[in-house]
Specification:
The complex is a heterotrimer of chains A (340), B (431) and C (281). Chain A has 340 residues and is of the alpha/beta class. Chain A is built from nine helices and 18 strands. In chain A, the strands form four sheets. Chain A has a seven-stranded parallel β-sheet, with helices on both faces. A five-stranded parallel β-sheet of chain A has the order 15-14-16-17-18. Chain A has a three-stranded antiparallel β-sheet with strand order 8-9-10. Chain C is an alpha/beta fold. The chains are: A alpha/beta (340), B alpha/beta (431), C alpha/beta (281).
Amino acid sequence: MNIEDYHGVWVFLEHKSGSIVPVSLELLGAGRRLADKRGVSLAGILIGDGVKPLAEHAIAYGADCVYVYDAPIFKYYRTESYMKAIIAGCQKYKPEIFLYGGTSTGKDLASAVATDLATGLTADTTMLDVDAETGLLEASRPAFGGNIMATILCKKDRPQMATVRPKVVKALEPDYSRAGEIMEEPVELREEEIRTKVLDIVRFAVQRIRLDEADIIVAGGKGLGGKAGFEMIREFANTIGASVGASRDAVEAGWIEHHAQVGQTGVTVTPKIYFAIGISGAIQHLVGMQNSGLIIAINQDPNASIFQACHYGIVGDAFQIVPLLTQAFQQALGKEVEYG
Amino acid sequence: MAEKFDVIVVGAGPAGTACAYTLAKNNVSVLLLERGEYPGSKNVMGGVLYRKMMEDIIPGFYKEAPIERPIVEQRFMMLDKESAATFSYKGMEWGKEPYNNFTVLRAKFDQWFADKAVEQGAVLVNETVALACIVENGRVVGVRTDRPEGDIYANVVVLADGVNSLLAKSLGFHKEFKPDEVALAVMEVLKLDKRIIEDRFNLEGDQGCTIEIFGDSTKGILGTAWLYTNKDSLNIGVGTMLSGLIKHKLKPYELLEYVKTHPMIRPYLQGTDQQEYLAHLIPEGGYRSMPRIVGDGVLVVGDAAQLVNAIHREGSNMAMTSGVVAAETIIEAIAAGDFTEKTLDVYKRRLLDSFVGEDLKKYKDATHHFEKYPHYFEQYIPMLNRAASQMFTVDGTSKREKQRKIWQGIGTAGEKMKIARDLFQAWRVMK
Amino acid sequence: MLHIVACIKQVPDTKIIKMNPKTNTMDRSSAPAILNPYDAHAVEEAVRLKARYGGKVSVVTMGPPPAVKAIRKCIEIGADEGYLITDRAFAGADTLATSYSLTKALEKIGTLHPIDLIICGKMTIDGDTGQVGPGIARRLDIPPLTSVNKVVELEQEAGIAIVHRKLEDGYEVIQTSLPCLLSVEKEINEIPYSTLPNMLRAARYQPVVWSVDDLGDVDRTLLGLKGSPTIVAKVWPPEKPKGGEMLQGTSEEQVQRLFSILMERKTLFRDVGMRKGGGPQ
């Protein structure tokens, strides 16, 4: 491999229900910065069935060019089919950097692609930079459960690949006057080559607000002592229109469902307000919420490390504080309605 | 069909492992049951390991065992409110093979020791709680564990399940301890840079130091405090009789906090980070409260048999001896094909004839003596400190004059006689 | 007979591990080595499938000799056999080199007893990548399926597996061909308390141990540090937050103060009040 042959930054454009997912737009912002620093172009790669119209959004968000693989075979995400499109693109255009959103799809796809291309892949990156001279991608991520940060390099192989955690970089303001190229790529893949079929997609009836999109999160931890504690914070959350999150300990104790888990092995969240109630603040929790706008911690233990990470802290019994707070909001929000 | 071993040992602490090791080495099939994640996992603390007993089991063990530091200096500190009189012995002969004793971290050492037993052929099963002995016709024939399909059988069951031995209790061997039979030890491991430890305690290389602290460290309650050096941590703790804590309405951690902030102790601890905290019951009743330790098909060893020398803090030492003696007894019982109480009773006799029994007998009155006469701690240690202070303070008084003042300071002739009598009593129970 | 192999790893327990702040390295003595918790669910799923369809469960791991303990843990859960590949040449492997080594081990296991299904945990708690499973599948050229939270059916004769893949708001029903590789979510099962006979078997169990030479045709340049395209250039401690303002006083006073702080941002809450009152959308 001659790494001189590789140029440009690529972003995998993941889409869902007819729009590009937020993390891919964020990556176009990050990719723009890397490409400008390096003096190369930024491209998006869009794979799906009838997805071509999405390409203009990618350009508005910073791409110079979008490669589109549009065919019925790409109706559903399947590792085998999507992977083949990406590998074809990489072999044809030889990008030097390739970024994927750190979603389950992005991680699944990147792992398979990296193996076939025999190149380096850094998972769950939270910071990205590039050496303008060499084009070396500096991908940094928390390691060992968030106990250290590590910068990973891939010196001899291309493309340098990374999956990037959602919400760690900001998307650019879209500019629909930007010019860009949309390239429709040939698709030679046949259905018989793909061993995996999607038989059905089942969506849960109750649409809950996804934690990583919530503006306010009320999260509970081991200090809540059990399901009753979560009932209490759920009432508070309902009063102020918040979603309910949890620490790993609380999830593992079975007090609340897995999808509520915030942290290294759960969801990364950046709400405008984050309440950490009865959460001690283990490092693996902090990495998942520390970028929240306003962090309020309530804990009985004055030495809990959550108080280091919060903006405002209350040392006290959650079972006393939370009902008082709920009450205060119930009264105040009731008034708002009268005058609103 | 549930499996059957020759012997099941319940508890992989020093006593249980010493027993299992000795049995396995003699080709006896032995199952070692441990409730923790691994042996030692329930005990994050450090302690002193005496070389002699351990070496009888594994010669030259210190060449490979995870020991922290060989102890070259032992200090005894008599503490008053703002002073301390210290006696110390440091000897370089303790700094080289075969050493005298060591500091160890139990979590590491117990695991290593149990692995040694496994190497000899013992079967070690962790994370399994023995709920009860299986008793048939008045004979212990096995153990019921908390696991599915959890019954397991053996010719002899050895109970090494610690001071709170539930199994010994369920057999009616133990009654609930009285508060004056049990000491509560609270301890902390404090992280400190290896270099700083060596500077602060005047040590070279891997050498270690122990400080036993008497007097104000326990606020007049019977007990001691201690400070040990590990490789890169300190072990500080205080042990007192439960009865004393109750009487003085003191919480154990308050006492530990008091020791840690005492002006004579504080400088040793500067810049340390607390790593672990542990409270632990220690049987301190000595010879007087030793429970029944032999039955049909069952032996009790270690802390479960209340084998602790309250004065010299030699728990693991005696525990190991009891484990070995139990193993030797069982090996003979296997040869004879007889596992009745009558045959196994040899264990008790041998134990009492060994240094374990000798020591327990010798010190049997010590704990109670000091408990009954608290003025040893309340008066004599402060008196010693005053005397030392007068002796060493340079104020233009002659030494002879100082000695006279010290003698006067002790009180009237009657009081002097009482002190002499008390000291004689203490000497008698300790000697 | 159905042969299911779980790929597992022994990891330091990152939940309690402590770092040496001076050297930025892990204080390994502070964290015991455990079976990667996600892998325990992979093994449990294999054991459950064996209970349903019959067959045999093997586990394979790459690691230093003490990794035998992690294999024993799998035997406790109910695995039948364990294979440890251990060699200095494996040291320093990133995910790409790891998937190569494990693939070589799986190929060898397959020659002893053909493999129908490979199961991996979602990820390891020390690496946090989830990349090795799909990597193995690519190398063996079998379908990789990640985020699996249910195995609906295996039909060994027809060579078909039907599984559920977890989505953020539901799941996909996937049909694929056997052999395939599944990376399973923790929620796929609960691990029951192991039976005493399994504990006893595990305590005595000696796994098969292979070095690189035992694996047959291996390209040594693809192993360990040499075979790893990524390198760790630098490690540093995560930024320590400065600590917040502690609200003082009685519970009532604390709540009052917090409430007024929150009310400075009351636009965030206004919507709620409106919704509650059924006001305009």
